[in-house]
Each structure stands twice: as C-alpha cells, then as structure tokens.
Amino acid sequence: MATKRVVVACGTGIATSTVVADKILEACKKEGLKVDIVQCKVTELKSYADGVDLIVSTTIVKDKFNVPVINGLSLITGIGEEAVLKQIVDALKKGSVKQEYEDSLKIGNRRQ
Predict the structure, then answer these.
(1) Residue 80 has what DSSP assignment?
(2) What confidence tens digit (pLDDT) does each residue in 60-108 have?
(3) What dotted CATH number matches 4-111?
(4) What does the alpha-carbon distance between residue 26 and residue 45 come to, in Å, rounded to a whole number?
(5) Residues 74, 80, 83, 89: what is their CA dihedral angle, to the nearest 10 degrees?
(6) How far apart are CA 56 and CA 72, in angstroms?
(7) Nearest CA-CA partner of 24 in 76, 102, 95, 62
(8) CB 98 within 8 A of CB 53
(9) Are 53 and 38 in contact (CB under 8 A)?
(10) What is the DSSP letter of 59?
(11) CA distance 16 to 74
(12) Domain residues of the chain, as ranges?
C-alpha cells in the first residue's frame, strides 16, 4: 500500500497537533499503514492541503477542501478516541480517499 499523506491541524501547529499526530501514527502502525504526517496551524491548511489524502483538525475548519476533514478533538479529550481513530484508519485504508470523496460530492450534487 502506498504511503498516505495526512495533515494534522490545530491552533498553533505545535502541542495539540503533536499529540494527535502521535496517536494517528501509532494506530496506523498497528494496522500496517504507512503514513506521512505534516503538522500545521489551521490557518495554514490551504498551504499544506494540496496532494494530501486526509485532514485531521482539532479546531473548526472553515475552508472547504477536496479531501475529507475529520474532527480530531476526541484524540485530545479521550472521549470517543477509539471511534475517531477507527474513522481515520478506515478512511486511509480505502483506495483513494481523495477520489472517493470527490465522487461522493458528485453524487450529492446529482441529488440536488
């Protein structure tokens, strides 16, 4: 399986995103997934989002991206942590996360 690219964003791009990135790396390692994680401030997401497979943020993401954005706050609070890690791992295990997301947008647009 190819290496998946993940951006982890928080308010400052330092402490909180480091905790989240470590938990994602550990969960992916257990599942045999190769991931490359970049940490940034949520205000820098546009600069880092090109070519990534997934964005995980611990704060509100106001911009729209062509990849799934998963709320990672549970990885800080511990409440619902396992469910969020499963959501992240499942998203990364799918073929092309970005392509699947774009396809779902196209399907959604047809229904409207």
Answers:
(1) T
(2) 999 999 999 999 999 999 999 999 999 999 999 985 545 555 566 665 5
(3) 3.40.50.2300
(4) 23
(5) 20
(6) 6
(7) 76
(8) yes
(9) no
(10) S
(11) 11
(12) 4-111
pTM score of the predicted model: 0.82
List the one residue out of 98, 104, 68 whose CA is nearest residue 84.
68
Q: What is the pLDDT of residues 15-67, one digit of tens each?
A: 999 999 999 999 999 999 999 999 999 999 999 999 999 999 999 999 999 99
Contact 35, 6 (CB under 8 A): yes
Q: Which amino acid, residue 107?
A: I
Q: At 13, is the pLDDT very low, low, confident or very high (cuts 50, 70, 90)?
A: confident
Report CA-CA distances (Å) from 100 to 22, 45, 103.
26, 21, 5
> Active-site residues: which are they?
10
Q: Which two tokens stand for residue 2?
A: 């190819």
